[in-house]
Every structure is written in structure tokens, then in C-alpha cells.
Amino acid sequence: MSFKIMPKAALPDWVTWLKNRYRVVGPTARQGQYVFAEIASPDELVLDYPTSVLPPKKYLLPQRETLFTFDAQSMQMKANIEWEPTVILGVHTCDMHAIRLLDKVHATGYTDQHYQAHRQHTTLVSIECLSPCMEQSFCKSMGTLTVPEDYDLHLTDLGDSYGVDVGSEKGEALLQGFTAIWDPTSEDYQRINKVMAEKWPRFSYRLNFDVTELPDLLALSNNSSLWNELGDICLGCGQCTKVCPTCYCFDVRDEVDLSLTKGQRTRTWDSCQIDRFATVAGGHNFRSTRALRNRHRFMRKGKYHLEAYGLIGCVGCGRCAAACLVHITPVDTFNELYRRHKKGEILEEAKQA
Amino acid sequence: MSAKPKVAFFEFTSCEGCQLTVVDSLQDHPELLDTVEIVQFREAMSEKGEDYAIAFIEGSCSRPSDEPKLQAIRQQAAIVVALGACAHLGGVNAIRNRMPLQEVREYVYGDRAEWFETYEPRPIKDVIKVDAVIPGCPIDRREFIKAVTHLLQGRMPFIPDQPLCMECKLKENICVYTRGKVCLGPITLAGCDAICPTYGDGCEGCRGLIANPNIEAMRQVMHEHGLTDEAIDAKLSMFLTNQIMALEEAG
Fold first, then answer.
1. Strand pairing of B37-40 and B6-11?
2. How confident is the prediction for chain B on average, in pLDDT?
3. Which of chain A's ends, N or C, has fewer CB atoms near its CB within 10 Å?
4. Measuring CA to CA, which residue among A175, A193, A173 is closest to residue A183?
């Protein structure tokens, strides 16, 4: 839509200005790591951060959310659809791709009204990633190192100022009446071109093959012995799925109060890596081993989402790899499948199966 | 409205901390007293009624003479709930189960070893049928209230079957391993809201193992983080001796 320049010195004023109008959340430092949290004072905001523990999706799909309350005697219920006009500052491009996928998932079929309510009242301010944010990230391989066009505002660090891409009217509203910004000069354009040109060599490809080959590779890998090997070392702790920006599985529970008169239905993030996740009525568990659960997770990230929604399910943020205590990573898993496939091992196994 | 269900509390080998947690839960939920009638509760009252439908039992069974008492409770109660890690797992008391019993007796009681009756501490489910468990050392008071609510509804208490890491990550706690300590969170049942990691300590496993835990991988992780085999064994025996021994026996 338009492009503006905001001096870094004006950022605190802008955040304060936003705070008067919205709940403002962004990356903040906590115990040596970074978490998205409400910004109480502008100096808490850290825009140059290695990735956050949980992705910003927690403002669209909260860890715990009451779906509705009910009267346990009359069984009348009341939907609990809440939102707060929120600005999320400093969203990395990988997380923007993840939100794009979540948007699609929650708008398909029976749309998720709770997600929609949060989403419609959320304004996303993304930030250009100029260098790899942590050792485990592999966004360049996954094609998520550029921002998808879903941003409302997109910031690019130009040294003493930010380039501000306006992507939507919602984004434009964040700047309305804020006077410490200006239209770029030709010098500003030169600077942004330089910054953008310099960033790419800093990122290395981590996959040993092109990501477009991933769904086919996974299709061939259904019977790979690698799944059993991962199952042997996996703790089944579920951390990988908790920190994943594209995971959205949840569990639902009803609770009533002690007098048995009032109650609520609550959903909480769940995980396909948990032993009983796929247990159905009658007690049958159709993913009863850690090997099957690992395979399911990687299939979902690299194949199933693409088939169902046209978008790849892994955005290369590296959070799961960083969280895994037994060092299971998507990069190693996909590369190892590729290596074995090249040797023809998978085809051999497929024949035997 | 039917008569209030009659409830009794009993303790065997334990510190009675779980029963104190029950008393403590009245701070937030005084209405508990309106919903049940407590007929026995040594920690909180001197009257003793023998007519009860729900029995909460704290403590492990650590001597043969505990058994008839447990049988009597089972005969009277329609529902028996194991309250806390001792009743659920054998508790800290079970640390000694890997050692020869006679040696333990002599170490503790010296030349009076024969005066005291004792055997290997065991969860009460090894002695009588148990309908439900409220795990933890001590139990979580919110979970206790929730469990009572479920019982009032005619349901068995729901205890999460996820590993603790799931709850810990929801809170965005820094991983205890990142801080150079060790934690049994990956193999321990959640439900305590990850209280120990939240306050900076590793999980000790008081709520018991998840279904099908990967003990070998857990040992490997602790090893990588600097623990010797002996230290790992010690970690796994604080609350989990009986469960780990059972897994070893099953192969």
C-alpha cells in the first residue's frame, strides 16, 4: 500500500501511542529467553530477538480457553467468545507463514469462531529477519524467509530507522495521526535494497534437497526404518508440538463447580506425541508407538498440510529442534530420509513390506 | 436433593501432608463442607463415624497389619480413592525397596530391629481394589476439589495423562535442563501445573510415570547433563522405585 520511514528514536513514543488504543504485545526478555508478553513499558520490547519460546499464535489460539459456560441444571449455555483489540509487534517471517496456515485451517469447513474473533481483532506487525535467529532455524530451506502478504505492517531494520511497509488498512490505522514518520527518500530506498540484498547470504540452506521434493520424499518414506529409530530415542514429552507455530490440536474438558450448578467447557493445547492422543472409544490406540507418532508428526508437517491446505506445515523456525532433549530435529530427519531414499533403501523396504 | 455423601479420611505410612492439603483446600472452597459430610478425619475432627461411602486413603501399606485395616475400609466404602504419592506409588517410603529388608531394619532400628513390624512399602492398590487416584506429593488442592466435583457427579476423578513438559511449556518456563539442572518432567504425569519447574527446581516425579515412559532415553538425557549412573538411579528412586521395579520385572 505504502512505505514509510520511522526513526528508531520514535519507537518508544509509537508503542506508548499504540498502548493507548490497543493491548500491545511483543517479544520480551525473561530468564534469558524471549516470550511474547504484554508490553507494559516500551523499553521491555526487544525487536531484535532470537525466537520466542511459544510462537505468537498463543494470542489467536490461547493455551487455555473457555469456549462456553453452562448452567448444569437447565443445560443452557452461553458462548464465551472474547477478544481484545491487540497489536502483536515483532512477528518473525516464519511465524507469519504459520499464522497464514492457521488462518486457512480455522476458516475451512466449520470455522472456529474463537480463533476468528481473536484474529479479526489482532493487528500483525512483522519484522524482516536479517540474520538467522538461532542455530536450529532453517527458514531459508522452507521458503519462509520472506514475509507473506498477510502483514498489516512490516518493519525492516535500517540501522537508525525502520522501513515500514503498510500492508492493510488495519496497519495504516496504527500510524494514523502518528507524525514521527516520513515518506522515504531515494537514499532510504537504496538503504533498504542494500539491507535486503545483504541478508540472504547470511542464511544457509539446511535441507539437502529442494523443499518441493519433501511431500514425495515423505510419501516414499512411509515404511522407513528411521521412524522406529526415532521412536526408540523419543521421550514422548510433547515439547516439540507445544512450541510449534503450526500445531493447533486441542483437548476439550467440561468442569462444573462444587455445587454442580454452573460449569464451563475449556480447551487446552494437546499433542499427537502423547501416548493416549489417538486412543478412541473401546480403548484402541491407532498410533500406539512413539515411532508411529513421530512419523505422523513429520508427515503432517511435510505432507498432509500441503495436501489439505496448499501450505507446507513446517515453517523452519527451529523451535522443536531447540526444545528436544534427545535432539530429534526436522532438518536431520528430512535429510536422513533423503539420504536413505537416494540409496534406494526405502524402495527396498517398500517392496518387502 | 439427596443426602450429602458421607466421606472418611484414613492415613497409613505417610506424613499426612495430603490431608493437610485437604484442610488447606477449604480456604478457597469452604463450600466443600456443604456438599459432603465428613464422618472421619483425624487431622481435622475427633468424632468418628463408621458409616461412609467414599474413603480417601493417604499413605502406603508398609506392614502386614495394615492389610486388614485396608480390607475393612474397602468393605465399607463404595469408592476408595488413593490420596497422594504414598497411597498411589508407595511414596518416598519405597526408596528402601531395592535394599534387603533386614539390613534396612537394622540400619533404622539398630539392635531393636525385631521390635518393629515392617515390610516393603507398597501402593494400596497392591492390597485392595482402588477406584481412583489423586497423585502428587502433596496432592494439588485444586485437583482435589475437582476430583470431589467429579465424584459428586458420579464420575471417577479425571487425572491428566500427559507428561509434565506439556504443562511446563504452556507456561513458557525456561527448561530446567537449560539451567543446568535435571528434571523428570518428560516421563512424569502432569496436573500440578508444573509447580517445581515454575519455581526453578526439576520435577522429582511425585505424580508417577506417564504411560509407556522411555526410561532409557530419560537416563541418556540425564547422563548427557552430567549425572552419573548412581545419581540417575537416585533421581529415579525418590518416588518411582516401585514403578521402575515393576517395569524392570516386565522387561
1. parallel
2. 95
3. C
4. A175
How far is C-alpha B166 from the geometric centre of its chain's CA atoms?
Answer: 20
The residue type at A288: S
Q: If you compute the radius of gyration of chain B from its CA atoms, what whole number of angstroms results? A: 19
A245-261: burial string, b at 16+ Cβ within 10 Å, e else: bbbbebeeeeebebeee
Q: At what angle do helices A113-120 and A93-106 cross, to 10 degrees?
A: 140
Shortest Cα distance from B216 to chain A (angstroms)?
8
Residue with C-alpha cell 474438558? A253
With beta carbons less than 8 A apart as the criterion, state whether A52 and B169 touch.
no
Q: Which residue has the cell 530415542?
A: A233
Instruction: Look up residue A4 and give its DSSP letter.
Output: E
Dist. CA B197–CA B175, nearest whole Å: 8
Q: Record the cell numbers describing residue A323, joined without a space.
A: 526444545
B201 close contact with A: CB closer than 8 A? no
Compare CB distances from B186 to A35, A271, A325 and report the shortest one's residue. A325
ipTM rounded to 2 decimals: 0.92
Q: Is the pTM of this model over 0.90?
A: yes
Partners of residue B133 on adjacent β-strands: B82
Q: What is the dihedral of CA A333, A337, A338, A343, to 10 degrees?
A: 140
**What value does the CA radius of gyration of chain A take, rounded to a whole number of Å?**
22
How distant is the Cα of A285 from the closest Cα of chain B, in angstroms? 13
Phi/psi for B6 (5° steps) reads -90, 130
Please give the DSSP secondary-structure letter assigned to residue A304: I
Cell of B36: 459432603
8 A C-beta contact, residue A272 and residue A278: yes
Distance CA A235, CA B214 (A): 5
B2, B35, B162: best mutation site toward chain A, by most A Cβ within 10 Å? B162
- pLDDT tens, position by position, B130-165: 999 999 999 999 999 999 999 999 999 999 999 999
- The span from the CA of A103 to the CA of A313, in Å, is 13
Quote the distance between the C-alpha of residue B172 and its chain's center.
26
The pLDDT score that the predictor gives to residue B251 is 82
